[in-house]
Amino acid sequence: MPALAFPPWRRIYGFRTDARVEGVLAPIVAPRRIVRVELTLEAHYHGDTALCAFGPGRRHLLAYRGALSPEGWDAVRETFAEAVIELDEDDAARYAANSFTLTQGGESVLLMPAGVSRRLCDQVRERGVTPITIDVSEFLKKGGGSVKCMIGDLGPVGAFGPT
Predict the structure, then answer these.
(1) Could you give the CA distance from residue 140 to residue 51 in angstroms, rounded to a whole number?
(2) Which listed residue, of 57, 77, 132, 151, carries a Cα 20 to 30 Å from 158's Cα?
(3) What is the strand order of the sheet 107-113 is part of?
């Protein structure tokens, strides 16, 4: 939003979402339910910078508590329970939640930004998923995202027929 200040803009939270869309999405994702969470940090302005489902069936979840409202965090913990790996501030600042999962032939990997903590990589491994780190530092500096922001997830490999 333009502003008469320096910088010449101000950010507005929530302008990309509308609670009314829940009624449109609910029938599409049924019988699964929609878990509404509110993002509260400017640096984590998209859900995929604060939350990342990964692994086979995307059963596990990286989540950054600091980017969510207290009610949103409670909903994440209640819904996903033991599947949640809580990101610390350093891993969140590297946009670890903006990672991308690939599962093929029974093997699952999580493509993550270089520099994430050993603790986080170990927690991913404990869930049977291989972490692979990639240097995306230039994109992080210029765009404020990580691996997932650099790709288009079009679904399972081969979903559109032979290549």
Answers:
(1) 17
(2) 132
(3) 100-104, 107-113, 130-134
SS3 state at 153: coil
* Predicted structure pTM score: 0.82
Q: Which residues pair with 109 in a beta bridge?
A: 102, 130
Q: Structural domain tally of the chain?
A: 1
Per-residue tokens: 27: 């029938």
For residue range 64-82, list pLDDT tens digits in order: 999 999 999 999 999 999 9
Q: Is residue 15 in some structural domain?
A: no
Domain-embedded: residue 139:
yes
How many residues are listed for the chain in this entry? 163
Q: Residue 138 is part of which domain span?
A: 36-150
Report yes or no on 138 lying in a domain.
yes
Residue 159 located in a structural domain: no
The Cα–Cα gap between 73 and 69 comes to 6
Which CATH number goes with the domain that contains 97?
3.75.10.10
